[in-house]
Every structure is written in structure tokens, then in C-alpha cells.
Amino acid sequence: MEPSSLGEVMEVTREFYKLPLKQKYSNFVDGKEFRMDWCDRFYLVVEPESQRIYTLWPTQPPSFRDILSKYPVRCREITNLVLKNLAKLLNLDREYFVNMLDENAMTHARFNYYPHCPKPDQVFGLKPHSDATVFTIVFVDDSVSGLQLQKNGVWYNVPIVPNALLVNMGDVMEIMSNGLFKSPVHRVVTNAEKERLSLVMFYMMDPEREIEPVPELVDEKNLRRYMKIKTKDYIAEIFKTFARGTLSIDTVKI
Ligand SMILES: O=C(O)CCC(=O)C(=O)O
Ligand SMILES: [Fe+2]
Fold this sequence. Notes:
Family: Belongs to the iron/ascorbate-dependent oxidoreductase family.
Domain Fe2OG dioxygenase: 102-205
Number of helices: 5
Keywords: Iron, Metal-binding, Oxidoreductase
Pfam families: 2OG-FeII_Oxy
CATH architecture: Sandwich
Number of strands: 11
Bound molecules: 2-oxoglutaric acid, fe (ii) ion
GO molecular function: metal ion binding; oxidoreductase activity
Strand content: 15-25%
Strand order of the largest sheet: 1-2-9-4-7
């Protein structure tokens, strides 16, 4: 994607979060079972277009709508390209995963704003989680880091790469690939001095479609590792597990 279009997208996100009319509320609830995250989130359905609720779309800054209408189109091109190559890697029909994201598939845009935090050692910007999506495209802040990935129990900082988008495999791909692909656990740490922004595109299937390992990838040698679950039930699960700080994918592992 051209650096100029990416720059515009980050700029409208920044402008939006500067608006006084936006109610800013940061939560710090320190309980035994429940810990809120140090961030403001704003979700919009962007696809299917018929499900956009334009009354919720900010009218300020004035270019918000226009820019946020074009961005998903470009992200979809990236998604399709990567999904085709992932299917090829698994020796499946190249369109296999692309076809899962049919006309009823849901794409959410999530705008994350992490205010600077007076107690960065006590609260996360976003708790450890894996994305309950097919696929996620993250546009991270171009100057403040904070996103970390877990591998073999160790946390690694995700570097800031100018004008780059981060493509993240979600739980659905882990389940469908019967564990060949991994949906990485990640988190966002807070920063004592600086605020941070990100814009995340979440690709999910039609809520009525079922998630399960691709039959071609399961046999006597490669036993089935995940149960079947309807997309909408999996989404309902996320809200419970995220609040508890556990992983949704663990609920469908066999
Ligand atoms: O803010 C980020 O860099 C990542 C956000 C994220 O992981 C999410 O919204 O699921
Ligand atoms: Fe995430």
C-alpha cells in the first residue's frame, strides 16, 4: 500500500482521538479475577458494506468516512493474496480460504488508543490474547512501540517498520490448518510517557459458518486437534475468555 494512503489512515485515527467530543475513559480495575486494559477501543463494522452503521461513523475529521471506506478495499486485496498463498502451502485449492470469507463474512475495524500510563508495570494496554479471527491486519503506531509477541514462553517486541502492515494469523486459521499454522499470543504494554495508536482490521467468517479442521489435513497420522464450533459461538466465547484472561482457542482443543 502506498505510504501516502497509510499516512492518511493513521492521521484520521489520530485526529479522531484528539477530538474533545470523544469521551475518553481509561479503566484501571484491579481485581483478583478481572483486570481491565489501559486503552480506549472503538469498533466499526466495515464489511459487508450492507451492515455498516453509518450513524456510528464519526463525522469528524471530515475525511474519516472517505479514507475509512477506501482502506478496507486495499486491506482485502492483501488478505486475499496472503490467504491464497497459505492455501497453496497446505496443498489446498488456492481459493480455499478466500472462499471462506464470502459475502456474509464480517470485517471489523478497531481503533485502539493507549493513553500514557502512570503505572505501566501494573496494567496492560491489552492483555495477552490471540485473535479469534481468520486473519488480522494491524497498522501499528509509527513511533511508539508496545506490541509484543510470545514465542516459547518469551515475549518479543514487534519492531516498528515504517509504512508496513503487520499480518497476523488468527485462531480460525490455526483450527482449520489443524495446528499447522499458529495463532500467536500477543499483548500490548503501556508506556509511561507516550500515547500510542493502532488500527486493526479483523477478518471473520459468516457468523453462521462452522470452524473446523480442513478434512484433507486430518488422517490417521494427523489426528484432529480441534472441535467444530459455529463462528458466532466462538465469538461469544472470546468475550468470556478475554475478560478472564484465558485463551479462547483452548476451549476447542481436543
Ligand atoms: O495495538 C496493537 O498493536 C495490537 C492490538 C491487538 O492485538 C488487537 O486489537 O487485537
Ligand atoms: Fe490482537
